[in-house]
Amino acid sequence: MRIVITGAEGMLGRDVARAATAAGHEPVALGRSELDITDAAAVRARIAAAHPQLVVNCAAFTDVDGAEQAEGQARAVNAAGAGNVAAAAAACGAWVVHVSSDYVFDGRARRPYLESDRPAPINAYGRTKLAGERAVAAAAPAVHTIVRSSWLFGVGGRCFPETILRLAREREQLRVVDDQVGCPTATADLAEALLGLGLERRLVGIVHVAAAGSCSWFEFAREIIARAGLRCAAEPCASGELPRPARRPAFTVLRSERPQPPRLPHWRAGLDRYLAAVAVAR
User: What gap in Å lies between CA 125 and CA 131, rounded to an integer?
Assistant: First the structure.
């Protein structure tokens, strides 16, 4: 099948393209330089010309702190742009899989969030991602799957493990927040699930897809350092000790109540594969 992938220059988009090729499909990988999803006319023309059976939208404004000062810019991509992609896919008879975020929740829960839980974002990025979910559902009501995931990391992009590896090689000690808990999810694992949902399952609506297990950023950092064999010491701290422009939700573990949702490997398994891939790429 022919699969259009928007945001294909990002770490998730690249992994979706690789997974599609490995499965014998024909990916049409469109990075930002080839398609600006905020340009509705260009999106319609480019997707129509590709004649896809599936469109996977990985394009996003992902700078959580930057969105606090540029919410309009983030909204143009994450909300209006997402709607443009969904509308174009629906117009040519394709299914659309749209990637959303755990940051649509406020983090006050003490049990994993399910699809039916009420979103209540506490930062600009989360607000724009929630607006994107609604734009996709409105533009392609019968032919969309919205996948919420969590704490994505992958090869070839800016992500938490990449930052921790760099800093751990430069410093003897790192302080990492221990009061934010989520599900670190490898983009290579998520990519396969996105294709399965778009080509086989085609569940309409929202589906939570994140790695098994959960941890804090500190616990994640400690595992990265230990598994990479580095000597840097990680120390836990509270979020208030390392203030950021955007508030982060304290707890965004995702689980699904949909029938037979995709099950991803444990985050530690995803981390091991990431570290192996990084070692090969160096």
Answer: 10
Pairwise CA distance, residues 207 & 85, whole Å: 19
Tell me whether residue 255 is in a domain: yes
**Rounded-to-integer distance, Cα 217 and Cα 250, Å:** 11
Round to whole Å and give the CA distance between 92 and 7.
19
What proportion of the chain, given as a percentage, has pLDDT over 90? 97
Residue found by looking up tokens 């800093």 in the block: 167
pLDDT in tens, 39-62: 999 999 999 999 999 999 999 999
> Is 29 a domain residue?
yes
Q: Kindly write down the DSSP assignment for every residue of 81-144, as one continuous string.
A: IHHHHHHHHHHTT-EEEEEEEGGGS-S--SS-B-TTSPP---SHHHHHHHHHHHHHHHHSTTSE
Which of the residues are catalytic?
125
Domain that holds residue 99: 2-215+244-281
Dist CA 261 CA 250 (whole Å): 25
Q: Find tokens 């995702």 and name the residue.
A: 254
- The answer as to whether 225 is a domain residue is no
| Reported pTM | 0.96
CA distance 94 to 218: 41
Count the domains in the chain. Answer: 1
